[in-house]
Design brief:
The structure is a homodimer.
Chain A (H helix, E strand, L loop, with lengths): L1 H4 L6 H40 L9 E2 L2 E2 L1 H5 L1 H22 L5 H15 L4 H11 L9 H26 L4 H28 L2 H4 L5 H4 L5 H23 L9 H12 L3
Antiparallel strand pairs in A: 1-2
Family (chains A, B): Belongs to the FPP/GGPP synthase family.
GO biological process, one term (chains A, B): isoprenoid biosynthetic process
GO molecular function, one term (chains A, B): metal ion binding
Amino acid sequence: MKYSLRAGGKRVRPALTLAAASLFGGEAGMAAAMPSAVAVEMIHTMSLIHDDLPAMDNDDLRRGLPTNHVVYGEDVAILAGDALLALAFEHVAKATEGVDPRRVVSVLGVLGACVGARGLAGGQVMDLESEGKGDGEVTMETLTWIHTHKTAALLVASAVAGATVAGASDEDVGRLRTFATKIGLAFQIADDVLDVTSSSTVLGKTSGKDEAVNKVTYPRLLGLDGARARAEELVAEAKACLDVYGDKAAVLSELADFIIERRN
Amino acid sequence: MKYSLRAGGKRVRPALTLAAASLFGGEAGMAAAMPSAVAVEMIHTMSLIHDDLPAMDNDDLRRGLPTNHVVYGEDVAILAGDALLALAFEHVAKATEGVDPRRVVSVLGVLGACVGARGLAGGQVMDLESEGKGDGEVTMETLTWIHTHKTAALLVASAVAGATVAGASDEDVGRLRTFATKIGLAFQIADDVLDVTSSSTVLGKTSGKDEAVNKVTYPRLLGLDGARARAEELVAEAKACLDVYGDKAAVLSELADFIIERRN
């Protein structure tokens, strides 16, 4: 559990949680959201450990290090993922302080929903099923469904958790949800582009993987330039959701830019 | 997810949740505890799906049916387990009604803790590591540690969740915790005995498994009669914890008896 959590990574999800909490609750909101921020990184790490397993994407490199099962064996890797997932919920329930318990229950519901059949797991199942299929069989609609669930769901939950803990109104939470869905899709398109254009060394994970398993991606459906343009468009739309908050949303806005400017 | 949830099973854990809720909250307590009861069965089912995987116990029969990965493949089985685990938390958070949200947060913390490194996953890691070791290397102390975590932790969480939702005092919750720890250990000893004495057909899972992987068990350390006697002793101690409640605890008491009298 420690090995994969401490392997680094961009920490985009906890940054999103804390930025959302800061927008609606300032310093106190950020402090209250810290257990949720830690939890979303635990959930993300669990999903990486399990996705990298031989029975799934069968990857041996992640965050520049050997994957969990390469180091500890498949059995321990499966259990480390299970334990990290459970610890995420335990941590939010036990370590969140100074927050109305109704809001804590709400956050736990949001985090639970983003992992399951209508979240990470559902998206990954569809992703696995679409491997090796031709362009005609996997449409833009299917691809967007996969990425909305596999990638955007946890980013949305990360932002919503931060906003909820900090006491945001339903309207504000709704705005953050739209913002995070759009940057979630942009994030995945950027990932697809990097898989084509970058090296394994820079990525810290195996590059060229999508083509190797004949996976339909945004670059394949839209071309590299088309995919890049679509990601920029989504980030612009996402940032427009924040206009109503003015300069107070500067950190969230910078996170949106980082999503497509990053090199790994 | 549905396939494994609906494959049957004894439903001991949800029965424990509902019996504990009934003791402290009557009919209303039972109704309030239903989402928690469903959640503990989801968590148990997740642990069975993952434990049966080829990388773990590699079993192809469970509850009289082919195991999840035999039917759906290893990738989907891993994801179904992940999704069931997350759904357990989501369901408690979203479907529990008429309960002080502080108690709901408490239940979610208890459920999270029983799965992780100090619960199911930790117990399973130690169990896997003890396979193939000789009698001298796995002591009664180690074996009790494994079973306290691998088996008793979820039974304890099941009872505590029911009692907590129904408004039990800290003292009552403590008593239920002791009761469930003892029947948890008795339950595992009974499992070990059945693995030796029963057939796969009656068990609905592969029998003789422990000896096949050279696993240290209670029957091996204490003999069959010694193991049976220890289980009966634990059940008697467990039932003594309930004396203070008189006839009101009849269902919990019957559950304790069922633990060692069951045939599968």
